[in-house]
Specification:
The protein has 13 helices and 21 strands. It is of the alpha/beta class and 549 residues long. It folds into 3 domains: 382 residues, Alpha-Beta Barrel (TIM Barrel), CATH 3.20.20.80; 60 residues, Oligo-1,6-glucosidase, domain 2; 71 residues, Golgi alpha-mannosidase II (Immunoglobulin-like), CATH 2.60.40. Strand 10, helix 6 and strand 11 form a beta-alpha-beta unit. Helix 1 runs parallel beside helix 2 and helix 4 runs parallel beside helix 5. It is globular, with a radius of gyration of 24 Å. It binds 1-deoxynojirimycin. The site of 1-deoxynojirimycin (NOJ) has 9 residues, from loops.
Length: 549
């Protein structure tokens, strides 16, 4: 039966259409160790990325976010930084970073680097000094050192748990083996948390930001932007399995109001370099309203919308999340920042069910996301429709969460497998050597080479969508409205444009909303003879269609 797609505007939710490249930008996340390897050590590097930048320019993205490539013992894939002003030899040199930024700019791509201010590596000179100098030393005040509880200080200072599982505290030992104070690490023990009440910490990070801004980067993705400030007195939480509360409630270590003063000061610093340098918050906040606080006019420019990422494949839930997100960001005049996958979560092809249905849904979700008002992030390999690798042998895994078991699901290696570029054998053009995680055999068919030029491929779908997104003035930042649609279907209206998403496992027949521009599945449009302005379209199961109206 044909259902109605009434052309009535039901809500006007987007914020004002103001300037700023990031408001509509499509930003591509490069997970540095898994994108392209130039020297054959099986680990991606900056030169490899630079060689592949033309691919990204051609794909049609506006900017590239590079995950941390700074000097690091790699206890957490580089999110444990030992020197924020040096490039890790695994990934190249400072001059490679310089070349990469210059080449990206020549190609019209902006570059965002990943700054990790919540914690350093335990090999950072500050932490080494703090350990060496012992209890009471000023160097310890840059971190959170505390005496333990219990008769002999044998119990941690409070009940906080690490996001990676286990206690968030590790006890230190003096040179003679005598146990001493404990230090806080919300992630791995190799990632001690910095104390942002210490003025030196604030000054040092401003200097680090300037260092990279002077090198020409266009902004920062701010790791754990919700975590730098801890509640005074480090109060107990009073329950276990605290990781389950992250993003669901304000915790004494996450989403404290005090973090906003830091972001405000960083915004001033960014603005002192002109209006085009941006800050992007990786912030897990319990509600859209609290997330919007990070993108107030005097704070950061973007904050990843994880509520969209974690939303089920269900039209009603998606609409609720989209409405809440748009409303919250509009209330502070910011764009919404959509994201479906990144290096910390199971790839959305797999999250949406895996196999053929998972891929169909992932393609449809991508078209929906790219049709929504605001900016969008694309995680490397999602444009190839890559699934999560679920059968990695334990001996090749590197995610510290896997070894500490329990939290952040412990399986983040499965979305970090190096991406396939070409050829019929691993490492599929990733580099001249091997690849640090094994790639599945089936990835031969998913390589950039295999998909290029095939109009049914996911890569060509992304390419077409990104071209259209640039051409159509109604897309990106700007107003949107919902059109009436049957249950299980979403119909998004933008100026001169409609996007219809069918989340059901069966086709749905709708009145033709306009001229089809792009579809994730073949369409059957039925036009009654001699009446070209009317007709119906059968939108296949798990599909999305873009229309010009
Ligand atoms: C978030 C990063 O995305 C993740 O990969 C890392 O493990 C944690 N922050 C800790 O830095």
């Amino acid at each position: 039966m044909t259902q109605d797609l009434a052309p009535t505007v039901r809500e006007q939710t987007a914020g004002p259409h103001t300037q700023g490249w990031w408001r509509s930008a499509v930003i591509y996340q490069v997970y540095v160790r898994s994108f392209a390897d130039s020297d054959g050590d099986g680990i991606g590097d900056l030169r490899g990325i630079r060689e592949r930048l033309p691919y990204l320019a051609e794909l049609g993205v506006d900017a590239v976010w590079l995950t941390p490539f700074f000097a690091s013992p790699q206890a957490d894939g580089g999110y444990d930084v030992a020197d924020y002003r040096a490039v890790d030899p695994l990934f190249g040199s400072l001059s490679d970073a310089d070349d990469l930024v210059r080449t990206a700019h020549e190609l019209g791509l902006k570059v965002i680097v990943d700054i990790v201010p919540n914690h350093t590596s335990d090999q950072h000179v500050w932490f080494r000094a703090a350990l060496d100098e012992g209890a009471g030393a000023a160097s310890r005040d840059r971190y959170h050192f505390r005496p333990g509880q219990g008769e002999h200080g044998e119990l941690p200072p409070n009940d906080w748990e690490s996001v990676f599982g286990g206690p968030a505290w590790t006890r230190t030992c003096g040179p003679d083996g005598t146990p001493g104070e404990w230090y806080l690490h919300l992630f791995a023990p190799e990632q001690p948390d910095l104390n942002w009440d210490n003025e030196e910490v604030r000054e040092e990070f401003e200097s680090i930001l300037r260092f990279w801004l002077d090198l020409g980067v266009d902004g920062f993705r701010i790791d754990v932007a919700h975590g730098m400030v801890k509640a005074a007195g480090l109060p107990d939480i009073g329950r276990s399995e605290q990781a389950k509360l992250i993003g669901a409630q304000v915790l004494p270590f996450f989403d404290q109001d005090g973090v906003h003063a830091i972001h405000r000061s960083w915004r001033k610093l960014l603005d002192s370099y002109g209006s085009d340098r941006i800050g992007v918050a990786e912030a897990w906040a319990p509600t859209s309203e609290r997330l919007a606080l990070y993108v107030r006019p005097d704070e950061l420019h973007q904050a990843f919308n994880f509520q969209f990422l974690t939303c089920d494949w269900d039209a009603g839930s998606m609409r609720t999340v989209i409405d809440a997100s748009l409303e919250a960001t509009a209330s502070v005049g910011a764009p919404t920042t959509w994201v479906l996958s990144n290096h910390d979560v199971v790839r959305h092809t797999t999250r949406y069910g895996g196999g053929e249905p998972g891929l169909r849904r992932a393609r449809a979700a991508a078209l929906l996301m790219l049709a929504l008002p605001g900016s969008t992030y694309v995680y490397q390999g999602e444009e190839l429709g890559l699934p999560e690798v679920l059968d990695l042998p334990d001996e090749v895994r590197q995610d510290p969460a896997f070894f500490r078991a329990g939290s952040q699901d412990g399986t983040r290696d499965g979305c970090r497998v190096p991406i396939p570029w070409s050829g019929d054998r691993a490492p599929y053009g990733f580099g001249p050597g091997g690849s640090w995680l094994p790639q599945p055999e089936a990835w031969q068919e998913l390589s950039v080479e295999a998909q290029s030029g095939d109009p049914r491929s996911t890569l060509e779908l992304y390419r077409s969508a990104l071209v259209l997104r640039r051409e159509l003035p109604g897309l990106g930042d700007g107003p949107m409205a919902w059109l009436d649609a049957p249950e299980g279907v979403l119909a998004v209206s933008r100026p001169g444009f409609v996007c219809t998403l069918n989340t059901l496992d069966r086709e749905v027949e709708l009145p033709v909303p306009g001229r089809p521009l792009l579809s994730t599945s073949p369409l059957a449009i039925l036009i009654p003879e001699g009446r070209s302005a009317e007709g119906t379209v059968r939108i296949p199961a798990d599909s999305c269609v873009w229309w010009a109206v």
